[in-house]
């Protein structure tokens, strides 16, 4: 059996250590803000709101800059260098600022943390997707290392936090150092035909303001954004307080929390396995159908959770998430590179996916939170599932068929040019 090329392990390592930082820090940040920084629930919510809102400011600029840079790593290096400061920031900077003024602390924390996470994640994913495509490597297969990182963080994060809460942030800094080494060694053979197809400047075209703004004239861009708002955003909002709903089915909260932790670990393991096969599945069914299937599964999981009456059925419904995430992560990039101008893939990804999703979460989180209080979890789930179903049906007719545009991974048609920014035919 031929072993995967070095680039596969290199790109996979980039994903692993970036999402290891992500999972370790964000999983324990709410607890740290309460126990170590002394914030109450409202103040903690203010910090997370600042992170989400400031990330919205980063994403459009990060997308355009990523496309202008192409295979150059400048913006990725910015994220890595910011992540290196995680330990010092939490040890000596963040708590004094929060104690001085909660609003100032929330803004500064939001500027820093969103640069590494909610804003920076698009930079990381867009670069590795482009570099993988240039190296004729399936993006989904290197993305599975991110799922493995999530499982690893679950195993080691809790032990480190209990031993010394600040240790998780210094662990993040150490992981960022390894991430930097892997980024330094990452290479793309720019002379290959696959690299020429993935390079934003492959046809000599410059990423101009007019070209970027022409994205907003595309009917397909708005339908893609609508699908993300109505499915992926609702997916995240549903998951935010699902553990509280899940715990209601158990005699005590402690038992429910333990069972949910075990369930998430199983979900993450299944997700990592499915990531291996998902690129092949999406190549067969098409990225549009993958996105539609994601919407259908999201509807089934939310609606099913509303009607479930026992822990077994509710747990099985939760495991659907192990299929949903690989479907979404692989389909979204294949759809963008299959339908839109590949020179603007990062911009479209950060706008249609990250920006639209984050903005909708800010709005939906507040609405769902009030509904949970006023009408209960089940009725709120009926409402959320209805949104997902309606948007998914609209997307069936609104999204273009990517299989009419896309070539097999790593291949370039003779005399082909990147898909131009023009309204794709139905």
TrEMBL record:
Localization per Swiss-Prot or TrEMBL: Cell inner membrane
Keyword terms: Cell inner membrane, Cell membrane, Membrane, Transmembrane, Transmembrane helix, Transport
GO cellular component, one term: plasma membrane
GO molecular function, one term: lactose:proton symporter activity
Native species: Paenibacillus bovis
TM stretches of this protein: 12-33, 45-63, 75-95, 101-124, 144-162, 168-186, 221-238, 289-309, 315-336, 348-368, 380-399
Protein name: MFS transporter
Alphabetized InterPro entries for the sequence: LacY/RafB_perm_fam, MFS_dom, MFS_trans_sf
Topology relative to the membrane: Multi-pass membrane protein
Positions of the Major facilitator superfamily (MFS) profile domain: 1-403
Residue span of region Disordered: 405-426
